[in-house]
Structure formats: C-alpha cells, structure tokens
Amino acid sequence: MKQCHNQCPISFPFYASVISGQCLDSCEFYSIDGSGSKICQSTCSLYKIVDNLKQCVSTCGLMYQNGVVCQSSCDIFPNLYISSDGQRCVSKCSGQDAYSLNFKSCDNSCFYYQKLGVKFCTEQCPIEQPFKYVDVRSFCVGDCNLTAKTFVNAADYTCVSPGINFAYQTIHGVYSKVFLASCPDYYVIVAGLGNQCVSVCPSQLYLNGVICASSCSSGYYIVTNQQMQCVQYNSAKFYTMNSSNNLKLQLDDCLKFAQTDNECVDYCEFYEQTTVKMCRTGSEAVCQHFELVSNYKKCVGTCSGAKQYIKGQECADTCKGYLIDVDGVTCVGNCGNNYVSMDKTRCQIAICNFSVQNGAKQCLQECYIDKPFMNIITNSPMIYECISDCATVAGKKFVVDQNNLTCIQCTQTGYSTFYINYIIAYKCESACPNDQIYQDPANTYQSVQQCLYKCPQDKQFIVNNNICSNTCSSLYYITDFSYIQPYLCVNLCAQYYIINDSLNQCVDECPPNFQYILGQQCVYQCNYYQIIASEKYCKLITDIICNYYIIDAHNGNKECVGQCQGIYQYINGQMCQTACNVSPNYYIDIDGVTCVQNCGLNYYSIDQLSCLTTCTYYLTTQGQKQCTKTMYKCPPGLRFIYQNQCQTNCPTGLYFINNNMECITCSGSQTYKIIFVEGISVSLCLNSCSLLQDSSSAYFGVNNCVTQCPEINPYLNNGVCQSTCINQAYHIDINGSLICDSLSNCYYFTIDVISNYKICQLTCPKYNQAGLCVETCEFYEIDINGLNTCVLESNCQYYLDQSGPKQCLSNCGSLYNDGKVCRKYCDQMPNKYIEIDNISCISSCGLNMVSSNKLNCLVTCPNSLYYIDNNIKYCTESAFCPIQFPFKSNNQCLNTCTQFIDSLQTINCDLCVLNGYSVSLVNDQQVYICKTCPLINKAITYLNKFLCIDQCTSDKPYIENDECFQTCSTLKYTVSQNILTCVQSCPLYYIINTTGTVSQYICIEYCYFPFIFIDGQECKLSCPSYVQTINDFKICTSCTFYEIVNGLQRCVQTCDQADNKQYINGFECVNQCPFYVSIDNITCVSQCEVSQSISGSLCDQYCRFYLEGGIQKCSIDPVNCPLNYPFQILSFGTTYQCVNSCPTGFADQNTKLCSSCQVGESFIIDYAYNIQYYICQPQTCTNSLKYRDPNQVYNGVLRCVYQCPESHPYLNSTSNICQSSCQDNTYTNQSAFPQNLICQAYDPIKFYIINYLFNDGQKLQVDQCGGDYNFIQNQQCLKTCVNSFYQIINKQNYCRTGLEPECQILSDQNNNICVDTCQYYLNNKVCVQQCPQYIDLDQIHCTTQCPYLNITTCVSSCWYTLENENDINSQKICTKVDNQCPETAPLHTINSQHCIKQCPIGYYIDENDNTLCINQCNGNRPGFTLIQINSVSHYKCVSQCTVFLDQNLQYQSLSLCIQNCPFIYSDANDYCLLSCDGILDDGIHCDPSCNYYLDNNLNKICMPQCTGMFPFFMQRGSRIECLNRCPSFASITGYCLPTCGAVPIPKIMFEQITQVCYSSCPSAVPYIFGNICVQSCDLVNQFSRGIFCTTSCLPNEYICDNSCISSCSQCSKPYYENNICQSSCPMYYQGNQCVSSCVLADGQQCVSECPINKHNVFNFCQFSQNCELEVDGFCKQKITMEPFETVADTVQMHVTTVKYSIIGASILLLLLIIILILTCCQNRIKTKTKHAINEQKTFKQIIYNKQKQIPTRIKDTIPIIENTYMQIIQSDFAQFNFTYKKEEENRPQSQSLEDKQYSSNISNQEEQETSYDPYGGTLDILE
Positions of the region Disordered (predicted)? Predict the structure, then answer.
C-alpha cells in the first residue's frame, strides 16, 4: 500500500521526479537539489559514482572527467593521463602539452624536448638536443640557429642573441655558435656579424699573420697542419698555380712532373728522372728510347734488363702482339722473307716445314687440314711447304695415297680420286682398284686416264679390258645387270638369243615385249604368215592365203578369217577391227564398215569419226570438210558462217551478220549495232532498235543503234538524236538522256544556262517560285501537291519557328503559338509558359499552378503537391517535396516546419501523437522528429513532448531494462562501446569500480593492463600477497619464497628455481643483496662483520675503489668502475681510483682511463653512462667518423664527424677537414648527397655544374653531363641551351655557339638538336625517320617526284607499273620484287621493264615464262593454250603439242593445245578421237595390239603382264584380263578356275581375298581341315590324324598331344587313362593303364605278388627283415623300412601301424617320425607339380579305405593324425602353389592351353573328391 511521508525515508531516499511524490529505493541517475533531496534523472551528461550510484553533477570539481564519468584518478585504459588543465583524463598529450616527468599527466608549461612530434618534460636537455631556448616556455633544440637566438652561451648552453663587438666559435656542429668576448689564442675570421674564432682557417682562407684572409700579398702560400699559410717566394722550391686566385702553392717536391721553371704539372710527353721527374723540352723534347712508367714515358739511354725488347721507341718487357726479330730484341709485325717460329713468337732464318699464312712463312710440325698437301722444297734435309691443292704445283699434281699427301708426278697408266677437306686429290695408280676398274680415254688428267666406278652415261659399252665406249666394235653385246655397267661387248652370242633393236643384244631369255622366238632371234609377234608351232616359237606356212585377219590381243598373232563380221566388223585393209582406231584410218566411210584416212569430197563428223553426205555447218581443215559440233556451231577463230561454211570473216560486200553469225546484207529499214566477236568489231543487223538511233552515223544506209546520244546531237526526239529541240525545253530521263518536251508539260522547270532551254522537272526539289525551281525564299507554304511554294509575308497567318525559309501555316496545330510564330516549346522570353488551353505561350500563369518542368500552366498538380517560390506556385516533379521545400503539410511543400515531422524519409509536418521526439537537421535547420523512444530525457521538452536519448546521461549512466539509473540494482555491469549495461552476474572476470557512491563491478572478458592480477574473479592492480603464473595468467596466491618479476611477486619452491636470483633476502629471492651477502654466499645481511671489508655485497681487503660520502667503497666489478664513477685514475702507483669525470676531459674508450690528446690529433665524443667525454683519434680520423669539423674544437683538437656540416659541406681529401668552399671552387660528389663533397683540382677536360647543391658558385666536377644537366656549353653542364640549339657529339648535347647558333640540319621537327648528317633522311633541313612522300636517289634527301618509285624510295631504274595505266606520263611504280612483275600486272614484253596486265594484241605468253609476252611462238609443233591470269584470258605458246592437239581451234594461224581431248581418246599421232573400241594402254591412246588389260569399268588399260596388285588373270576371248582376285578359285600360277577339280583339292585363303588351289598343302599350312589347308589343327579342333584334322578320335585310338594314335607307345607318354596318353600315372598303373587302386602294389605298379626281395606289408611290397607272417599275410613284427618312394606309401604304412598300436606314446613317436620325414621330402613334393593333387587324393582315399579296418579304440586318433599331416601338406603346397603360379606367369603363351587343360582337370577332381570326403572337410590346396 502507498504510505505518505513529509520527506522520503532513508530506505527510499530517491524522489521519482520533482513533481511526483513517489519515493524510490534507488534509481540509475540522480541529482541533489537545493534542499538536499535526491531527484531521479533519466540520464546525466556528467556524473560521479557515489555509493555505487551515479550522481549527476555539473562539474567534476576536484575529480577528473573521463568522458561522462568523474574519477578520482586517471587509471582506466585508455584514458590514463591527466590533462594539462587538471580536469580531464585523456589518452595522450597533444598540441602544446608535454608528458610530465612521472609520465602520468600532461603539462603545458614545463621545460621540454620534442621527439617524433611528441613533447616530453625534462630537467636536462638530451644529447641530441643539447641547447636550451629560454622564452615564455623553454624547450630544448638541436641547433640555436633555428631559433630567434642564434648563438650559444657556453656556460649553460642556452641560446642567446649576440652583443656588440662580439666573437664566437662553433661547437656541436656548424650551426651552434658560442658567444665569446674575444678570440684568445685563436685565428680570427673578420665578418660582418661578429668575428668567428677558429683554430684553423677555413679551406677557402689563408693565414696571413693572425688573420684569415682571402689572398696572400706575396703571391705564395704553403699548407701546413692543414692550414694554408702565406709565405715569401723561395727559388729552391717548386710550385703549382691556383687558377682560381692566381696564387702559387709552394711545394718541396712535385707530385708528378716539373717544368724547367719549377712549376709542377700533371703531364708531359717525355721526362727524365733526376731529383724530380723533369719534363723534356725544346729540341730534346722527344727521346730515342723510353719506358712506360705508370703510363708516362720515361727517357732511357738503351733498352736493357727486364725491358730489353724494342717496340719502336718504347722499351718493353715483352713483344706481346708482335714477333721477335732475328736480332732477338726488336719487335716486328712480320718476318719478311724469314720464317715464323712454330710457337708464333719470333722470326728465324733457319728453313723449316712451313705454310704460307697471310703472306708469312709459318713453321709447322705437320700440315693442317686447311692445307693438307706437302710440296717438297728440298730433299736433304727434306723440307716441304704445306699447300691447299697439289694442282697448283707444276708437274706434281698427284699424291702418293690417302696417308701420304706428298705432291708427286704420276708415271703410271691410271689414277683414282678422293677428297681431303672437300678438296679433290688425284692418286697415282699402277692398276685401277677393284671398285674403280673402268677407264675412259677422254677422261684424262695430266695425260693419265682416270679409274672410274662406272662408265659415263654416253659411253655405256665396255670394250677392250674395261674401256668405256659409246658403241660396240664387236658384233653383239650382253645385258648383265649383275655388273655395274649394263653393256658388255662380245663377238658371239653363243647360248643367248638375239634381239634385233638396231644393235644386236644378247639375252638368256626373251623379254615380254619380244617374247616369241624366230630362229635365234626374239621377235615381238608372229606375223600373219606364221603360226605358233610350239610355245613361243614361230613357224612359216605357205598353204594358207589370208583375205582378212584378226590380231590376237593376247599375243599379237594374226588369225586368218574369211570376212570381217561380228565385233570385228570394221575393215582396215585386210585387218578386221572392233572400231576404226588404227592410224591413219580413223574414219568410217559412208558404207559404215570401211576404215578410211579421210572422207574425200564428203563431210566428216569430229563427234562420231564417220563420213557424212551432209551437215549443218562445216569448216575446211587440211582439205577436208569437217562438220562442226552442234553445240559450238563454228569454233573460235572461224565464228562467221557463209554458205554453211565457217569463215574467219565475212566476204566483201556482206558487212553485217545476224544472230546466227551468218554473213548477210542489211536493208535501210533495219538498224545495226557494233559488237565484238573474239576481239573483232562487227555490225549486227537488227530489225528494230529498242534503244536510240543516230542518223548521223549511218553505215551503208543503215542507222546505228546506240545507247546514248553523242555530244553533236545531244537531244532525243521521237527516238532520234538531234542537235536542237523545237520548243526549247527538255527533260532528263533515268538514263541521263535529254528528251525534247512541250512547254505544256513543263509545269516546273529550271534554266539550262548554256542553251537557255527550260529543263522540265516533275517537281521542284526545294522551292517553287511561279514554276521556276529556286534554292530558297523568305516565306513559303506547302501547296496541295506538297510543294514548297514561295509567298509574301503578308500572306502568312502563322509561320514555323525555324532558321532559313519560314513555312507559313493556317494554324499552329500541335505547336504553340507565340504571336504569329509557331513554336515547339514556349522557351522564348517573355512568353515562356504554356497556357492552360495548351495552345498559346504566355508570360505568366497568374493564380494557376506551374508544372514541375516550369513550362505549363495547370489548374491542379499531377502529384497534388506544390510549393510557392517568389509567389509562384510550382508543382513538384514527383510525389516527394523538393530539397529546397522539404516539409509537406496539406499538399504544400514548405521550407520550414514549426511542428513535428514524422520521419526523415517522408518529412510530413504535423502534430505529434507519440511519447517523444528526436532532434535532427534538414537542410541545416533543426527539426523535431515524432517517435516512440526507448530512452527519454524528461528534463528536455518541445511542445510538451520529451526528448529521446540514444544513451544515458552521466548522472544515470547505467541501462537496466532499457531505463537509465544511477547504479545497477545488481551492482554488476558491462561496458561495450561506452554503453554501461547492467547484468545479473559477470560470466568471467570483473573490476571493482569504487568511484561512485556505491561500489560496482565492471564485467570484462579478460584482465588487461594494469588490472593483470586475478584474485578469484576479480582483476586487480596487484596481489595482496604473492602471485603465481599459470598458463600465462597471473594468479594471486601465497608461498614460502618469491621473486620480484616486473614488479610482481612470483612464487618459487626454492631460490634456485628463480631467474638468476640465488640470494635470500627475508623470503624474497634476489640476484643481489640490498646490503651485503653473508659468509654463506646466500643469505642477505644488513652489514658485514667487523672482520669483513665492503666490496659490493661482500667484504674484501683489496678492490678498485671510489669515494662516496667520504667512505671508500669497492667497485663491484674488479676490473671496471661503477656506473656513476666510470673513469679511472692511477693512484698510489698500482691502485685505480674511480672518478665521475676526467680532469682533461679525454679518456680511453675501452678502459675509461683518463688521458690527453697529442698535438695534431682529433677527437670524437662518447658517453659513459650519460657522462660526456672525449676520445683521442689519429689526425686523419677513422671508421665512420672520418671527417674533421673545424667548427668543433676542444683543447686545440678538431672533432671527427660522420659528415661535413651544411655550412662547410666541402671536404679537403688531403687533410679530411671540412671547408665552406673549395680552393679551385671545384668539387666532386663521390656519393649521393648529403654525403661529403670532395674538393678537387680543376680538370679542364672534365665537365662541371655551377650551384648544383648550393648557390655558392661552387662547381661540381663530373665525367659527363646528364640528368637535368644534360647540355654542355664551354664544359659547363646546363639544364638548357641559351640559344635552344645543340648538337650531339659522343652522346653528349653540346650547345651551339659562335657565328652559327642555329642548326643547318635539325635532328627532328620536335627537338632543336643540330646534326651534321641525318641517321635516316633530310626533309627541308629537318631529319625525319620517314619521308612524307619519297626518298630521293641519293638515299638522303626527301622528294616529291621520282624517275622510278620503289615503295617510298626513288631508284634510277626498275621493273615498274604505271600509277595510272591510261597515262604513260604518270608515276612509274617499282614492283615489290626486283626483276619480277606483281600479281596485279604480271606481264611484260621482251626488253621491257614495264609490267602490264594484258599482252598487246597479237602477242602470246611465253611457254617457259608466264610473265613474258612474245609476238611469235616457236617449236616443232607450235600451238597455244588458253590460260587465265587475273581472270583475263591469254594465249600461251606451246612448242611441242605432244599429247592433245585440236586443229579446229586457232589464233593467229596457230592451233589450240588442250589439256585433254573432249572425246577422251586419241590416236598414235595425238589427234582426238570420238571413241576407241580397242584396249587402252594408258587410258588415253588406242592400242589394238594389247594382249593383257585391266578393266576399270571406264576403259581397258593395257598391261605388259598380270603382276603386282593384279596377279590373277582370266581369258576373255583372244585377250587376257588381269584381276586382283579370281571370282572363285585360282591356280598357283594365278590362272582363274571355276573349281579346284572334280574331287576336292585342298585350298588355302590367299591374302584373305582369293582361294588358291593346291594339289598338296604347302609346308606353311601342312594340315587339312575339310578341304582347307590350315596351319594347325588347334585353329579348328583339338585332334589331328596325320595331316588331317578331326573333331574326335576313334574308340580304338588314343589321344597324345591332340593327335589320334593307335598306341601310346608311339609318343613320349607310355601310360593312358580314359584313352588319353600320360607320361605317368597319378596313383597306380597296371600294364600301361592308370588305375586308382591295386590289390597289391609294388610302388605304383599293381602286381600279383611281391618280388623275391620284398614282402607284402599291408598290401604294399616293402623291403623288410625278420618278418613273421600271420594268416592274413601281413608282417606282425616291427619292421625297419627303407626310404620310401612316395608320400602315399609312407602315409599308408603309418596309418596301418597306428591301427595296431596300443600305447599312445608309440602313436606320438610315429607322428614325430612322419613330420620329420615329410619335412625332408618337402623339396620332392614341390618338384612333383602335376602329381601333388593326386597324392593328396591318395592320402585321403587311403584314410577312407582303411577306416573300416581300424579298431574302435584307435579310430578316434585318426583325425588328429590326418589333421597334422594335412597342415604339413597345406604348408608345403601353399609354398608350391605360389611357385607354380609364378612359373605359370613366366611360361610362354604356347603352353597356356595345356596348363589350362591340366588346371581344369585338377579342379574337376577336387570337386569330385569333396563329395565323398568322410571327414566333412575340403582341402583346397591350390588356393
């Protein structure tokens, strides 16, 4: 229930609000009013934590403000520093603030130094900024010269301003100038601002008394102690001139050379060595001999000693590059007539074997490959010259042999040749070698005949002992191709036959083309008066008279017949033919059967090769009338027809032709036109002219039909061309003809300015002015014909707004009217708006709206939105207000809103109905956005609405359930992005925040600096006791011993585990006791005992000591002094005292032993534990500090610096002293700036840059100009030339000076580079890489016209084409390839270089040159062919038309040679034939005497015989057809047969195409399957019987290796089972038959009784002793067995033994014996691969057979025995199976069938055995 109070009680101390009377126990934020009441607030802009609650405050007072929180200290990361105003916590000090000395606050008034832009408070300036600048705020600087106070007070190092008449010196660099009253003991440089005190004058000044002067009055000076000092002239001394000031530097000696006036110089051509190197001058300037010493010429009297050799005037130690002459000392270029030694170093007079090389006689050990031949010069001693060819030696042009290349004279009868290094050598032969036995009398060398490998082509006959000849002197010759030479001449043919072919050839067999024998002679055929008496022999007959005969196509013999009939119906003399195809009788006479040579007075048909009585058209060729082909009418060249005959032209009087090419006359009522027939102009008579006639060009009274009227009669009137038009008017038709017209038709016209005729137009293209077509008019209208007709302006009611002529309109239509102007847009002032009627342009819309495009007047806006601007209502472009008027209120857009807006997107201005608002900006004005707020500041309102806040205020900074409170009710909160959120509990760690009224917990994910210690969940600044590090976490704990690590107490078990802290100080492990170490060397004590001395932490009697507070203390380090007393002074002779500074200021760098520098030494500054001291250095300085700064002097010693200061940037390399300038004002930059600039004597050969780094007139001397300074003028490098023009010499840019500053030749158009010559071409004084037009003949200048143009280059002559073929004076363009015409104009005539596209009329293309035009063809049978060149037909010469000749096609009296006959066939004379019934030998020529032929379905090709791809043949009438296969069968000779005979004869497939018959199968296929020869019976079946293959053997036959035999004894396998022979039996055999069991077995053999030496032991015959037989026939006693033969024997014996054994021990003993024996027999088991399975079967069968005989008491033991044995078997056979499989993999493929058969049998046996196994198991040992 609610209880009333006068004031809120202690338990509910907070007022909910000022107005409300509700008391609360807490709130997140609160403030205290004037009465002291605590008023809850929604948020605070600033608060402090009081009792863990957030109290809103206006200021933090004595606390520090960290964001919105007031803190008592700045210790929360990252704001760890107190600001300089002492009110805020900041993350860093910036601006003028510096970090305080304790590094916890910022200070804006302390004395500071600055590093990397950050200020640090300090009490003493650091070494790198040693000077103090005192002002309103003081700070450290590295250089006073950078401040307003440019000098240094030496007493306190403060920057000061100088007084009057002051002096100064520099320290710590060139910029720090120490203020002095005067310069005691120093030289003075008098300057405008004070006098600088220096110990040494700068390099550019001279010591003149005590003043550093710029010059010496005496003119001489010396350099001493790196000081230039003026002196008086001394004639005994030498000097060198200083060109910069004309002073002479006086020297004791010259560095290089001296002139006679004692001036030192750098160079002289010759010198003599006296006390100095004195230059030779005058008449003795050149010495006779000299030595090169450091590349200078030192004169000597003679060359001797190490330099004894004479090279011209020079004495040298070697003649390298030269030869030593015969005198042994003179170096020469060649030896003249003497010889060059073998080592090519000297000349010798002694003769030697030599070779002339480059004119010199070079001695050689032996001849080289380039000169391998030896020409003997002398015989005693034998000296020879090496030469390249013996042919150059007179009389000795031969060599001995390949191994002895001595040139000799040949006295033998023959020679052979070979090559040495591609040089032919001639070897003298006493007899020709076996591979070169032939000789040709005409082929001689030095009168000796050459031995030849074979005779030359023109001498193929061999006569008189291998002499080559072109004929046989004897009667016959033999062709023997076993010889290299084919023809051997003999006197008799003897056993040979003779072929009579102009020579008498002897052959051992007549060839196919002379296959018949007549006597001893081979003949081609037996003539019709001979018949064949026997094979290939001819015999004469006399009793038969042949009227007609037929030639046998097979053998060429003639068969006599009574008459020609059937297919041989055509009669050619006495020969019957299948067609008239034998020369010369190719034509069939009009009787239809007689073959004739010509048709006489009749006609003949070229299509059918027959004679005709009539034909439509004909031509006369060779006196005969040839009918033309219907499709051609008349052939080319004979196109004109007169009286049905083809003519070359029409006869006189017949000047016209008709469309049939017939010559006719043309009447006056007809017309004609000119046409071209094969290049000939002819007149074609026409019945009518559909085009135009011209009466002025009548031909024989007939008007000409033309395509266009000529200029003389240009006008066309009623189809006739005339010179005038009657009505003086015409129109132009689509063909461009001028057609006369009437004036009534000329409604529109233009005027012909020449004839003043009216040119009638269908319409005016632009404007019509009273019928006259004009180009323009001011106003026009479009009439009813759509024509633009000109009118007056007064007749225009409206007109279009357009440039040029203005179109008049009756109304503006869809356009807007602006007065009389019709406009597309109302865009002209003042009428820029479109009226509401959408017709007129007006100046204002009045009270109406203006459209968004500000063009149209509207009653309402399309988007219902408008805004008012300058009292004009404008519609918006869209449904949103424009940016200038963003607020929407009742369809009006406003530029301000005094109410609330709904959002920044819609910006509707209206009242707010929600609980709060936020503030934002729209167009830079503040607006209030109505919204529902999660957090509200009730203290701030607008129109009775509360301000939404994004975060809590400082007085209520905590958010709990989306409300702001002073504290969290849970007292736990998280901080995320400066938002404090209350939580129920901290998941990980927390920090206690005690700054408020209530202590709260800040939840964090990990402990961070400085709260790095974990005490439970709390992160602390430190641990209350000790700390232990676990997994890098610092855990507060307690322990016995600890060590301090980084200020933390880390627990350890003992101090031995501490980090090098072996001493115990209380419970702390320390590496050093605070006072002393006790005698145990572990425990720390406060003082030593009386008997112990103080030595660091120990007491010692002897030590290196120092005084502190009057007490003498030992140094901890027995060798070095302590840090605060780093320097040592030797005291009492042997003891060192440590001091904090040296009296002299100098000390040794390593030992810190105080010392002092010698005169002339240098020094460097070092620091010993922040105490500065000086280290002596040699005068030259060393290491990186190797330069001496004259501005920094201490006790008369110059300081060594890293680099020269900018005020003295130049280095005197002799003294290493930095200078402000160089003596010659010249220096070199040996490394990149800002490294030292080395002064250097001016070298006139080098180049220089003035003011390169500083504007001080100094010259940087460089080897060459470059970079920005890449131009040279008088050795000075410039950035640009004064007159802009320059010239490149040796890759340097030299500025043009003198009388011709401008270029005569410019390098290019864009640069002012002068050149002497152009790299490419010169065009108008400018070098160009490419001429704008052509390159002139001199290949230098550019030109615009060439005599001949080669691409862009002029040439004096070339093969050319004309740029304009119709203008012979146009540019002659050279062809791309010289001496060759291009493809576009590929032709030329003889002796002409003009390339043309087509040969002139009457010219042919040359037969051998497709580019040459000639006017006459030559040859035995000249003719021409038609070829296409660039789609143009040309006639090409053919000198020998050997293949096809068509005499009907002619040009210029030559016939056309065609590639193929149009009728395919031709006769022997290569005339085309219409058909060919004979056999073709090549598919083209007819040959009726062909015996063998090949039918390719198109024609029959003759063959000499049936061979190659067509080896089979079949008789076809009298001829034989060659086939690639026979239709059915073939004989072994290739003859095709219908069958292989009455009874089947074996045959074999031949190449899988033809079946060849055999009487017996050949050895390659010896077996017969059916009637087919096969290679093996395995191909078709499994068995063979002799040579026959069968599918099965007879019942009484046996099978051995797939053969059927009568007994197995006939093969190597004597045993059989199931009629299959085997080499052995798997179990037993009886006789030769394999059986599975025996009644009695002797080994594997079944016997009726055992042999006499064996006994029956359990049905097995065994060797035994002491055997007593029982009734059942078995031995009873224990037996001793011999080694058994098989596994089966042993197993059966032992199993039987087990049957009768009683004692178990005996059974086990026998098992051991079995195992041992089986192991021994393992190798035997492996070898019997094929018997292994059978032995397994034997064992199992024994067990099974004997089972019934085993007594019951023993039967249970059998499985144990069997299993034991089986394991052994399995182990052995597993090994065997692996070996067997490997062998099978390596076995040849031919054995695989047998192996597969064997494996198959084994598998079948296993399957059968598995079925009756009595023990229920299987033994698959092969697995």
Answer: 1784-1823
